[in-house]
Design goal:
With 312 residues, this protein is mainly beta. It has a single domain, classed as Fucose-specific lectin (Neuraminidase). It has 1 helix and 28 strands. The strands form 6 sheets. Strands 2, 3, 4, 5 and 6 form a 5-stranded antiparallel sheet that branches. The longest helix is centred in the first third of the chain and has 21 residues. It is globular.
Length: 312
């Protein structure tokens, strides 16, 4: 009789354990966070890149400690679950900056940063082996903010709008910079943004300045023509990919909200409005992804504050 009672109690315990395992907590659906302020006193669009999960590097033109000098680059890092303080990366020697920066990483511990000087030349600064290298003059005759992609270690493509309204590209491969290449007219279009989801694939986006609609041009074995992707944006867009076959576009709407469209399963989804925070957006947004189904989007408001929103 005593042994029978023990067996019954053991059976009840096992039933409780099985029941508790069977009722698992459902996975949380991905969603957009609210806007969060990340500080700063910025006067350009932000550029953002990530070299590994949990790491973000954000760059923008900013004011110095006196609040007067605009010829400086500000840098802030997110790592180990927290934001570090803003750092001053200094100025492009001898030349004032125009537009905003562009940034990309081709692997752990590597960042390449690009700016346009007021003489139209492309400036390049890179982070490698734990230190920032000196500015490098890459020449050119460009205007506005450049765009950059990397499709693998040691591979860079920089795109820009030339002073003659042409789309130009500067490529780094096999350890050397190749000559500037003309890829056709950009008449009526803004400076491009660019994204690559892997080797042999690059997508460019620009705003038609007359209609404010987004236009796309793709390289996949050869360059396509420009295609209309809709929207209504007074300035350029930011683009990001978390893997092959996926592109997310972000732009500042006429109402200063964040507009979002994405390409998935071979089709473009409709534009959606993600809001603009209390002040609204004042600059073209930037975005990065450190893993599938994770996006970090950044904007700047009227007070120069960096704004941050995540999809996860």
């Amino acid at each position: 009789m005593r042994r029978e009672k023990v067996w019954r109690r053991a059976a009840m315990v096992c039933a409780l354990v099985v029941s508790s395992v069977a009722v698992a907590t459902p996975a949380r659906a991905s969603s957009w966070s609210p806007w969060v302020g990340r500080g700063g006193s910025l006067i350009s669009n932000p550029a953002v890149t990530s070299w590994e999960p949990g790491r973000l590097d954000v760059f923008a033109r900013g004011l110095d400690t006196t609040g007067k000098d605009t010829n400086r680059l500000a840098h802030r890092v997110f790592t180990d679950g927290r934001w570090q303080r803003w750092k001053d990366l200094g100025v492009l020697p001898g030349d004032w900056l125009t537009g905003g920066p562009a940034a990309v990483s081709w692997g752990s511990g590597r960042i390449d940063l690009f700016v346009t000087a007021d003489n139209g030349r492309l400036g390049h600064k890179w982070f490698s082996n734990g230190t920032w290298k000196q500015w490098q003059d890459l020449g050119g005759a460009i205007t506005g903010t450049p765009a950059v992609v990397s499709w693998g270690p040691g591979k860079l493509d920089v795109f820009a709008r030339s002073a003659g309204a042409r789309l130009v590209r500067l490529r780094f491969a096999d350890g050397t910079w190749q000559p500037w290449q003309d890829l056709g007219s950009l008449a009526g279009l803004s400076a491009p943004s660019a994204v690559s989801w892997g080797p042999g694939r690059t997508d460019l986006f620009a705003v038609n300045t007359a209609t404010r609609r987004i236009w796309q041009r793709t390289y996949s074995g050869g360059w396509s023509g420009w295609s209309d992707r809709g929207g209504d944006f007074p300035s350029g867009v930011g683009a990001v990919s978390w893997g092959p076959g996926r592109i997310d576009l972000f732009g500042k709407t006429l109402n200063r909200d964040l507009g979002h469209a994405w390409f998935s399963n071979g089709t473009w989804k409709s534009w959606q409005n993600l809001g603009g925070g209390e002040q609204g957006l004042n600059m073209t947004p930037g975005a990065a992804s450190w893993a599938q189904n994770r996006i970090d989007v950044f904007g700047v408001d009227d007070n120069g504050l960096l704004l941050h929103k995540t999809w996860s």
